[in-house]
Amino acid sequence: MAIAAAAAETTGLVFVELGLIVVVLAVLARVALRFGISPIPLYLLAGLAFGVGGVVPLSLTEEFVEVGAEIGVVLLLFMLGLEYSAEELRASLKVGVPAGVVDAVLNFAPGLVAGLLLSWSPVASVLLGGVTYISSSGVIAKVLGDLDRLGNRETPAVLTILVLEDLAMAVYLPVVAVLLLGTGVAAGAISLGVAVTAVAVVLLLALRFGQAVSRAIESRSDEVVLLTTFGLVLVVAGVAQQLQVSSAVGAFLVGIALSGGVAEHARTLLGPLRDLFAATFFVFFGLQVDPAAIPPVALLAVALGVVTAASKLATGWWAARRVGVATRGRFRAGAALIARGEFSIVIAGLGVSAGVEPQLGPLAAAYVLLMAIVGPVAARAVDPCVIWLQQRREVRAAAAARESL
Amino acid sequence: MGDMRSIQETKLPGVGVRHDFVTRSGDRLGVIAHKTGRRELLVYDDADPDACQSVVRLEEEDSHALAELLGGSGVAEAQSSLMQSVEGLTLDWLPIGAGSRCVGTPLRDTGVRGETGVSIVAIVRAGRTIPTPGPDFVLAADDTAVVIGTPEGIQETFALLQGG
To answer: What ipTM was assigned to the predicted interfaces of this complex?
Structure first.
């Protein structure tokens, strides 16, 4: 009886602690909504506050939160895959590769070089490259919608870059998974071969049999679709993890395979689940970072932020120019891409849980806190700034013309 | 209808499809069809042709209302939704020619139902819709019969209603 009573008491405490975390997240989500910003940086801050050395350290629920966080990553990538049909991926690959390559080179390099300059290990540097490379498609899609820019002519260029980044993730994550194993060159090459082959095979299967699978899953019952897709995603993610392909990539491929009505259905059903678990993931990442470790890397994060904001601006500018968009649109495209968020944290999270570099977690947290807030602000401010600059230039030119008379 | 503007289609990965065209008076208009069924009506900016001067969000009902007002037909939409719900059946609008032998005949005697298996679900007369006409309903020239049935049955009905 005493044991049962103690267990009941523990369960009660877990509920209270978990409930309080979720309530805090709810308040933060409301604040984010009120000010029209992404909730991701606020969730990170909450994680920092709850973690070791934070304001209110947690004691009981960390294990639960950890599994929740893993599910969060899986669902984030699954929903991302759902957004795209195989046809869209193919079309983006056809037209967007040059822009995708420019994006990868300009934005991966700053992180990689920064890591090497800090004399981090190659693996940690590659992870930092990933952190600075991938824009936040969640934040950007929302900003473009809020600013009524989805119809703009530079927007397809922006969206194509985002699609290619997501595809690049499907290759990058397995590579990182192998690098993190830290095996020798030969064994590493073999694991990498297995991983890349697995991704290619699954992608082909997804393209080929995606429709049949989608039809088999579709049902009128919400319950059936919810349980089937969620189960399928977890199983594939788990198998992928066992093959060292990374669970996130497995989930992403399932998302791509599903199409048509069932994709739409799964999106509405799993969306709320994704929101819950993804929030858990951001909190968990914050939990693992000691807030005291952030001030020493803050300047570094700002410097990295400035460089990679400029490199994204250049990427968008170039990509928009390629499709014949004028100056204002080119700047809008560049500024839209600045935001980093969920995927930078996903990538950094891999390194943090593998313990490759103690500074990676704090630096990535500070960097994402900065970029998730600066990105949307820059996207909003860029157009008025460009207009102002253009007007000033015209005024000056007019003045110069008068003087020369 | 002869002068269809040239409409450009642009895919927006993860969002949907955008269509746009330039009107006769030189304004650029577009519509984004979101995967969710939502629509956005775009009016491009003269000063900055890459951006939109105004964007109107339309939920599904709004799109229908707007299409109705612009003179597009809600009929095609109704038809496609019906086609989805009743596999194998077709809904169609059949005019009754002035020279048809059915003019002045009660529905019962046209033989539509008995011979073709097609049901006449409504008659459109002078812009007014008369739902579920009874067997005694007498057809007039220039009526339009709204019918439902198999594609072959509808072909036969068309012949019956047109025939002299």
So the answer is: 0.80
